[in-house]
Amino acid sequence: MAEGDQEGKLLGSADLLNIINGDHENRAKLPVTSSLPMNGGNGTYSYSKNSYYQKQSAGVEREKIIEEIREKLDMKTLSSVSNTIRLADLGCATGQNTFMTIQTIVEAMQRKYKSQISQSRPHDSDDQMPEFQVFFNDLESNDFNTLFTSLPQDRQYLAAGVPGSFHGRLFPESSIHFVHTSFSLHWLSKLPEELQNKASPAWNKGRVHYTSAPNEVIEAYACQFAEDMKRFLNARAKELVPQGMMVMIMTGIPKGMPYSQFPTGMLYDSISSSLMDMAKEGIIEEGEVDSFNLAFYAASPEEMAGIVEKNGCFGIERMELTNPAAWMKGPVDIPSLVTHVRAAMEGMFSRHFGSLVMDELFGRLTHKLQDISDLINSTCHEKVQLFAVLKRK
Amino acid sequence: MAEGDQEGKLLGSADLLNIINGDHENRAKLPVTSSLPMNGGNGTYSYSKNSYYQKQSAGVEREKIIEEIREKLDMKTLSSVSNTIRLADLGCATGQNTFMTIQTIVEAMQRKYKSQISQSRPHDSDDQMPEFQVFFNDLESNDFNTLFTSLPQDRQYLAAGVPGSFHGRLFPESSIHFVHTSFSLHWLSKLPEELQNKASPAWNKGRVHYTSAPNEVIEAYACQFAEDMKRFLNARAKELVPQGMMVMIMTGIPKGMPYSQFPTGMLYDSISSSLMDMAKEGIIEEGEVDSFNLAFYAASPEEMAGIVEKNGCFGIERMELTNPAAWMKGPVDIPSLVTHVRAAMEGMFSRHFGSLVMDELFGRLTHKLQDISDLINSTCHEKVQLFAVLKRK
């Protein structure tokens, strides 16, 4: 249920944040939008004027990361092998979020190191803090120029950028001590081919996502996700040192619940039906809807745990769903929400359907979401953010 | 003397290559041109249509690097401490040159590793080649996006970009095994302040460089160069592992010879006098000439050796001057040369003097250089490229 407190203005719903954030943090990773940044400039639908959610929700999990480092990361052992501690943020994008998160992690590691050293050598205050080196990773198409010119001047680490897909190797063997990845892993590396195969039971006709689709469609998405995660975990298993930690934050879902019961699923369904309505009216072709799918998958904690256990190289320190929008108050403001969605996602739709029909699409979407606003409000504080902490065995 | 062989067409002179190459390779490093790329596009004066010298002269020193690695780099010792060999190219710019050089170095290191391993363990063919990680460094303002999207697909190394000045720390302590830097170190980090101080004997009135200037001006440049090199060597001393190798290629000059005796010096003098002529005719202000200086310094091998010895952390394996343009044949084609100079350097002049006077400046420059073409031709095969190989003690 939406909270009754009206002091704050509720702009959106909890798990819609994930899709917006996902696009924000990892637009370069979107296979269907690989060269489509968010709306630029400062206009009505620009991302810069419509990223309030993203700012507000950034850092929801930061306290948990600090807690995990404090309680479970053995800085003394890590720094005994190397005098450099190496961190990686996978899917860093260009923004300030990665710098804030990295700063949080580095400071937590420094505190842990100091506390461990003072326990073992209480009279040795001269012990030298290890140096930190941070690798900011995203696809080659990411705007690293903006990332590099935005680096904090007073950072306590040496910085490097690493271009490439995190589904493959990025770093030397046993060289990384801490991996962070936020709102990236729910983007599939590619769309399952059968989604567009008319002869397949997984043909995803008339929909843009697996929400409300037959099991075969959901299964095709799940298989691709499992394959992507397998490659991701294999690469990280090589790169992380023993006892190295990996924090993964992404969209999740409680086990067994259909995605259509969540606001993001409602959004996808409403986009699908808006597009199908437009097809019926001849504004677009029905085949265009059939051939468009969003490469986005939300896993349950149990599903993710199964994939990690199958890989076998990592211990699971923490795996849980949280409400990413506990800070939000009041009912959803649908027009504002759609403006946010448009700022983040218009590019991928306009490339496929053409920019001329975007006003039409987002106008219809607003009406459809307004029609189901009670349903959205009743589900907008679900726990749909997966927070996982793994440790290299 | 210019060689008589007329089979090849000589477009320019040997050490002019250095200034053109210098700008090409390290434009981001130019303090006076930090945001001034070479002329873009495909027009008459574009860099892309006027970079023949650069292509031809790239790789002049590559054979020497291979020789140094083969004869002096102990890959067995380096790889016994770490299973990752880390390389850095400082001042990499965006182009293909850095990839070609790095490829050459990695392959030479792999050959050396194999030969050392086969000598010590002739029957152990399964010995695992170390992984290579390459750090491409340039200033934050460098176009890393172009660099990253141009990375060779079939590279045998993991790649990272490192933004920042090489006059400070870039990498963790004792983490780098090989440093390469080409056509970067002759650019000063800043211009000596006294060059613009009317009360100073180092006031560089009416000139754009220390060529043909009083000793005080030369001394001011030399002091800044020594200070820059001190910071550079201090940082590299921290970062290189013991026995790690550093190859430095830059413009040089034989000890005791005035810069005005070299084609690049003649170019600078001709630019100075062209500008002063324009000032006298009221086309520009004389004060504009006084306040413009090129932050470019050519050191002699003896001078560089002195700086390295004062630092004390490196052994000198090789320090020599070479002719960077042994491939060039025939007399200098002055108009073509000026077009090349313009493509590489127009930005820094137009920012200071305005784009409206560029045709005038480069037209006058062409005439002045044509007047002294015999002199240019008689000196254009001087050894003005400094090749230095250091090893961390």
Output the keywords:
393 residues; homodimer; 7-stranded mixed beta sheet; 7 strands; alpha/beta; 13 helices; disordered N terminus
Topology:
2 copies of one chain form a homodimer.
Chain A: H1 16-26, H2 52-57, H3 62-72, H4 75-81, E1 84-90, H5 96-120, E2 131-138, H6 144-149, E3 158-163, E4 176-182, H7 215-239, E5 240-251, H8 263-280, H9 286-290, H10 301-311, E6 314-322, H11 334-353, H12 358-371, H13 373-379, E7 385-392
Parallel strand pairs in A: 1-2, 1-4, 2-3, 4-5
Antiparallel strand pairs in A: 5-7, 6-7
GO molecular function, one term (chains A, B): methyltransferase activity
Pfam family, one (chains A, B): Methyltransf_7
GO biological process, one term (chains A, B): methylation
CATH architecture of the domain at 6-196 and 220-256 and 295-328 and 381-392 in chain A: 3-Layer(aba) Sandwich
In terms of quaternary structure, what is this? homodimer
CATH class of the domain at 6-196 and 220-256 and 295-328 and 381-392 in chain A: Alpha Beta
The major β-sheet of chain A equals: 7 strands, mixed
Strand order of the largest sheet of chain A: 3-2-1-4-5-7-6
Approximate helicity band of chain A: 40-55%
Helical run tally of chain A: 13
Mean pLDDT of chain A: 86
- CATH superfamily caption of the domain at 6-196 and 220-256 and 295-328 and 381-392 in chain A: Vaccinia Virus protein VP39
The largest contact between protein chains, plus residue counts on each side, is: A-B, 27 and 27 residues
The succession of helices and strands of chain A, N to C, reads HHHHEHEHEEHEHHHEHHHE
Alpha-carbon Rg of chain A, integer: 21 Å
Count of β-strands of chain A: 7
Rough shape of chain A? elongated
Structural class of chain A: alpha/beta
Beta-strand proportion of chain A? 5-15%
Distance between the termini of chain A: 41 Å
